[in-house]
């Protein structure tokens, strides 16, 4: 008699995402942001400075096909993906970070 313990994923709807075509002559640009707790202020501030100097204040996210991160870098990536600028995200860290 064998016992298989329940898994956390039991009952989860599983599906495979369809592969989307990507032009062979176009690079896939990824912005990856590292974590680091409240030190996430550094990558957010750095990206904000790039936006200010080179992009006229526009969000850097629109220059990438994918934005990803780990830990606090993931939070920054989510903010960028929802249309916020790095300056706005940096301000959140300044106002609410401890």
Q: Features of this protein?
A:
8% strand; 98 residues
Walkthrough of the structure:
The protein is mostly helical. The protein has a domain at 30-96. It contains 3 helices and 2 strands. The chain has helices at 41-54, 72-81, 86-96; strands spanning 30-33, 66-69. The protein has a two-stranded parallel ribbon. α1 (41-54) runs antiparallel to α3 (86-96).
Could you give the distance between the termini?
A: 53 Å
Kindly report the average pLDDT value.
89
**Rg over C-alpha atoms, rounded to the nearest angstrom:** 18 Å
Structural class: mainly alpha
Q: Describe the biggest sheet?
A: 2 strands, parallel
- How many distinct helices? 3
Please count the beta strands (DSSP E, at least 2 residues each): 2
The percentage helix is: 25-40%
């Amino acid at each position: 008699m064998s016992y298989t313990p329940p898994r956390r994923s039991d009952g989860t709807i599983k599906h495979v995402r369809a592969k989307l075509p990507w032009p062979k002559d176009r690079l896939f640009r990824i912005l990856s942001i590292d974590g680091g707790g409240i030190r996430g202020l550094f990558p957010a501030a750095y990206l904000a400075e790039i936006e200010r100097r080179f992009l006229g204040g526009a969000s850097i996210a629109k220059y990438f096909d994918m934005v990803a991160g780990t830990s606090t870098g993931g939070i920054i990536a989510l903010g960028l993906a929802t249309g916020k600028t790095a300056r706005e995200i940096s301000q959140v860290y300044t106002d609410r970070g401890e």
